[in-house]
Amino acid sequence: MRPDLSQTTLHSIQLLRKLQIMCGGYVGRELDIVKRHEHGEGTSVIGCVHGLAPSTVHSIVKSADKIKEMAGSAIPLTATKVTRFRDAEMKNMEQILSNRYNKENKALMVIDNAPGHPPAVVDW
């Protein structure tokens, strides 16, 4: 352990690093900074929005190509997870919708084919 850090501070740093790894670091924030800079916002304005020093914003903007490359390789993995989850949800919703459609269609057929009733005519 470094002598200038207390045990609590060291633990906080370790937790922060774990969160950065789990959450994918700051790629989203860095992409937002790069996008804002490309749209013409100044480094001090961007720094105020994100709570960063203008020098930090400048260094992020300087490494914009690397950040975009890193984000490009990370986004398909996230999209795959979302797509897999969405497929299961979509199948479930399609099944519910299909069941409901079949029930309503069956109810309409019973009403239309009832003995002694003329076919239903809708006049709009």
Automatic annotation (TrEMBL):
Domain of life: Eukaryota
Molecular function per GO: DNA binding
UniProtKB keywords: DNA-binding
Protein name as catalogued: CENPB DNA-binding domain containing protein 1-like 38
